[in-house]
Amino acid sequence: MPTAANATRTPPRPSAALLGLALALAPALALADTPVPNKGDTAWMLTSTAFVLLMSVPALALFYGGLVRTKNMLSVLMQVFVGFSLITVLWCIYGYSLAFTQGNAVIGGFSRLFLAGTFNSATGEFSTAATFSRNTPLYELVYVAFQATFAAITCCLILGSIVERIKFSAVLLFLVLWFTFSYLPVAHMVWYWPGPDAFTSSATAAAVSARGGLLWQWGALDFAGGTVVHINAGVAGLVGAYVLGKRIGHGREPMPPHNLTLTMVGASLLWFGWFGFNAGSALEANGSAALAFMNTYLATACAVLSWMSAEWLLKGKPSMLGAASGAVAGLVAITPAAGNVGIPGAFAIGLGVGVVCLWGVTGLKRLIKADDSLDVFGVHAVGGIFGALMTGIFNAPALGGPGSTVDWVKGTTGYPGVAAQFLIQLKAVCLVLVWTGVVAFAAFYVVKLVLGLRVPEEEEREGLDITSHGERAYDL
Questions:
Q1: What is the pLDDT of residues 149-187, one digit of tens each?
Q2: Contact at 8 Å (CB) between 58 and 284?
């Protein structure tokens, strides 16, 4: 007879009740293998999306509006408010699909036109999108909304360069063209990738990586939009300032901001909303979001002090406009770096960009001789370039940075070295500079041929509030 150690037994047959229970639980057990979006991550991303919307309406509108003359205040509010709405609609029709679905290295495909496939009304199922962690999806509609606010505010940033003399109809047509041919390809090149769950083995890793956007494949680091948002918009704004020409009386007549109180309120709301912009770009409520949040907070405060101090030394008086501009410069520069650098990097980037952007709106502006009305190029493009390049340096673990993922199969991080990463960042900056410059130039000229760009001289002198919209911002 066999011993107890190697004896075999016939398992007991399950009862009918037990078998029925197992069959009833089978669908639930199958679903247990499919990761479900975390409720905390979902709540954080919905909140972040609302924060970024706040950055445009009303924050950017008030910041820009306070800087123009009284007769053009309402026109700026209209351009931002309507422009934001226009881009949101286009994003849901075709923008999201072209930016964030698989296509080629430059542009995506058409699988999500009109957001098809994101919600199945017959089954009540929602599609999910990847985050930066394995088995940690996000509802795709949340990601769609979050990225929509990025696209919309980027387009609205351009408007600061061309206010007080452009036709409202020209603004809308230009935004359609530039959004389609500049924002969407750049967003795809920088941010589109297959997601961590696609990397299942070393043998297929190269093929999976080849499905990502061009700049992502290069290894360019842009946490929340230094290239996609700020350089992209800042250069387009400068091109627009050149194509439109200077405002009537520019350089001969005083054109001071009409309400710095509104500008300060706008800057403060931008700072508030930017936490959603940067910390939300972690796509999860995790340590990366915490790092991005703190870096955004700290770098902005440093930039306020550095801009104000430099201005105080140069001009003898610190100004409210300088402090507000310093805050925006700090926010711009830390955007690509937010989750890609440590606290030492936030100090360095914030303190450095205040001085760099002060030069951008003074010395550099005199050199380029463009009527960039609200210094979009000097703050957003210059600050974005500075932040993108410094990200390549302060991502280094030796300088307090977290490094970046070098092997998505194993989940290991590393750093290629200061020279190598800086060169990658520089290449990415140069590509975006050229891409947006060419597209913006072509778009403005198409608009010029189709609609005309500038309002007539008498309308510009009277102000766009009355002549373009039939209303006044103030009726005192």
A1: 999 999 999 999 999 999 999 999 999 999 999 999 999
A2: no
